[in-house]
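Hi everyone,

Forwarding the result from last night's run.
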Amino acid sequence: MPDQALIEKMTAWRRALHRIPELGFEEHKTSAFVEARLREIGLTEIRTGVAKTGVVATIRAGERNKDGAILLRADMDALPVQEVEGREYGSGTPGKMHACGHDGHMAMLLGAAAILNEQKDKLKQDVVLCFQPAEEGAGGGREMVEGGELDLAGISQAFAIHLWSLYPAGTVHTRPGPIMAAQDEFTAWFRGRGGHGAAPHNARDPIVAASLGVVALQSVVSRFIDPMSPAVATVGSIHGGSACNIIPEVAELIGTLRSFDPDVRNLLRERVEEAFAGAARSAGCELEFEIRPGYPAVVNDAESANMVGSLAGRLFGKEQVFESPPLAASEDFAYFLQKVPGAFILLGAGNEERGITAPHHSPRFDIDESALPRGAELLAALAMDS
C-alpha cells in the first residue's frame, strides 16, 4: 500500500488534473503536468509529444532485465461535457470535464511510477509508463501502436486500469477473453422526393422509410445474430423535415453497433445496411449508407487476466476480486492488446453512501478517491511480478 504522503499526492494530482480538462490531441497542459510530476518523482528517461500529445517514460530494470518490457497505460483526455456546479475541484474550463475518470488514471500511474522508481533495483524487466492521448473516440491508442511504440520499447505485456463508478470502490474486475466491445458508427440517409403533406401520393416520403428502417433494425440482432453472441444495434439520432405539412427530401438515421466477435461485427454491418435498403425500397426511396469503423473489441489474454485476479486477491483479499461480464462500451486499449498479451482491468470507484453513483460521461460523474492508492499498488505489483 502506498504511504500516506503518496496517497495525499495522488489525490492532489487527480484534483489538479480534473481542473484542467483537455480534449483528445489537445492535452498540452495535461502533458506538461505529467512530465513535471515524473521528473519530481525522479524519472529522467521521458519522451513527450508521442502521438502528438502523449508522454512515455521508462524505468530501467538494470542487469536483471529479461527479454521484453511491461507497459502500463493511462489515458489523458477529457470530454465535451459541462460539469455540475459547486465542486471544490471542478473543471476550470467551461464545456469540458473529466467525466470518465482519466484524471484518476493518470494519478494512479504517477503513483505507480513513484513506487516503482523506489524499487527499481528489484525490477525483473523494464517498465514503460504510457500516458496516452485521445482515447475518447480519436484513437490515440491506435496512433501509438501504429507509430511503433510497442516495438520501440520491446513491449511483451501491457496492462491498463479503468476506474468504474458503477462498482464499489476498491473492487477489482477483469476477465479472460473479450471484456469490452468493438464499436462502429453508421449514418443512413433515406432519399425520397419532397412534396406537400396533403398530397403524399405525389411524393416519396423518406420519413416513412427511416421509420421502417428503425423497426427493421430491431430484427437484425434478434433474428440474424446467434443469441449466444452479444451484439447491439442502436439508432441514437433521427433527423428529417422542417414543417408539419412538408414531406422532406431526406431523412437521416445515426447509430452505433457493438459486438465482441469479428464475424458478428461483419455480419452486423452487412445486415443493418440490408435492412435499411429494404426499408428504403418499400417506401419508394433510395438509401445512402456509411459505416465508420470504431475501436475493435478489447480482448484480454487469459494468462494475463488470471494473473491480475490472483495478484489482486493476494493484495486486497479474494472477496474484492470479481470476474467482469463483457461490457458493450468500447476502449482503444484494444489496439495494444491486438499487438501484445495483457489485460484491461476495471477498478471500482463508486460509493453509494457518498452519492458517487453517476455513470461515465455524465456531468455528475465522480470517483471515490480511496480507489487511487489501490490502483497504483496494483499497477506497481503487476510490473514487479511480471
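The longest helix spans residues 262-282.

Cheers,
N.
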